[in-house]
Write a structure and sequence with these properties.
It is a single chain. The termini are far apart. About 40% of the residues are buried. The longest helix has 19 residues. The strands form 6 sheets. Strands 3, 6, 7, 8, 9, 12 and 13 form a 7-stranded mixed beta sheet that branches. Strand 1 and strand 2 form a beta hairpin. The protein folds into 2 domains: about 240 residues, TIM Barrel (Alpha-Beta Barrel); about 90 residues, Immunoglobulin-like (Sandwich). It is an alpha/beta fold. The chain is globular and about 55 Å long.
Length: about 350
């Protein structure tokens, strides 16, 4: 183990998180009530910029962010390092009720100057996904020295390619080069290769998912809303995005308390729409109960008409075309425990 790696081994918050996990789950079973038939789950949040008014879709006001941290500190949540959440889901280990993980994309300077001091003061772990060549540009971006300082203090660093391209528009060789270049740069500075990956813009295809799975990563994250759980694809995990528009404390609480809406056979399978309006559908797991209150909402269009096409297969009928580019469809279903079940998809519209 290198000196830098040793200095980061088992920081205080990681030891406390592990202790909380042992206290919450004894003998392999949750002490707190668990819903029968549902897998262990956690909510992962994604932030990007902080206190920057230039782009409300990618930034969150400092006051809103501070409200989130107060909620996490006082609301009975178990905020664990994202690698620990991934490992628990992979290995079938229990997680405490209301487990939350925090991530930040894009090593913007506000992460170092505004977000990290507040997270550190709150004692909350987080993962920072980095596109390495943005650090070299200076300006509003973090520097390599700042990244090294954060990593030495225990911040988990993930790979988000070298230059943040739209990977779905590139060929396999180009994407491999992007990933490996970032891995080499991060390994040289941090002393170890990242094990977590985040897709730029949250966009991925089946081929990209398979590529990441075969390159030694433990998990990969998109930007579709939803809850990670033991049955989820570890290389297409959802995250709730928080920004000025979707960062109210009410929305934060609603998302943090969500449970998974278990579905299979989602179409389109790779996140790229086959037409516009897209053909969107999925099959709901029988454990989810009755579907009378299932609802899906498309960005810019509102609630979609749902049609049961046989068994538990559901398809959304959208009344008109969606805007080109990235769009989202979120589906919810009230749970028997008073929480909302949640499944979301991000679609790339030609």
């Amino acid at each position: 183990m290198t000196e830098r790696m040793a200095s980061r081994a088992r920081p205080a918050w990681r030891r406390l998180a592990a202790l909380g996990l042992m206290l919450a789950c004894a003998g392999g079973r949750c002490v707190a009530p668990c819903v029968a038939g549902e897998p262990m789950s956690a909510v992962i949040f994604a932030y990007r910029h902080f206190g920057d008014d230039a782009d409300p879709s990618s930034t969150i006001a400092v006051e809103q962010f501070e409200a989130h941290l107060r909620e996490l500190r006082s609301g009975g949540y178990a905020v664990l390092p994202v690698p620990d959440i991934v490992a628990a889901l992979r290995d079938g280990k229990p997680l405490p009720p209301r487990t939350v993980g925090l991530t930040i994309d894009d090593a913007h300077g506000s992460v170092y100057s505004l977000a990290w001091p507040r997270l550190r003061a709150a004692g909350l772990p987080f993962t920072l996904f980095v596109s390495t060549e943005t650090l070299e540009g200076g300006g509003s971006r973090m520097t390599w020295d700042e990244l090294r300082e954060m990593a030495d203090a225990g911040v988990v660093i993930g790979n988000q390619t070298a230059s943040y391209p739209r990977m779905i528009e590139q060929d396999r060789a180009y994407n491999v080069g992007q990933i490996l270049r970032a891995q080499d740069q991060l390994s040289g500075v941090l002393g170890e290769a990242p094990k977590l990956f985040a897709y730029p813009y949250g966009e991925y295809t089946t081929a990209l998912r398979d590529l990441i799975a075969n390159m030694g990563f433990d998990a990969a994250f998109g930007l579709q809303s939803g809850v990670v759980h033991a049955q989820a694809d570890r290389f297409a995990l959802p995250r709730f995005t928080l920004n000025d528009a979707y960062g109210s404390i009410e929305r934060f609480r609603l998302s943090a308390d969500a449970s998974p809406l278990l579905v299979t056979d989602v179409t389109p399978a790779d996140g790229v729409a086959d037409g516009n309006p897209p053909h969107f559908g999925f099959t709901v797991d029988p454990a989810m109960g009755e579907l009378d209150q299932l609802a899906c909402f498309a960005s810019g269009l509102g609630r979609a008409q749902l049609e049961n096409v046989g068994g538990r297969r559901v398809e959304a009928r959208l009344p008109e075309k969606l805007a080109s580019g990235r769009t989202r469809i979120n589906c919810t279903l009230p749970g028997t425990d008073g929480r909302w079940r949640w499944f979301g998809a991000q679609l790339s519209i030609p």
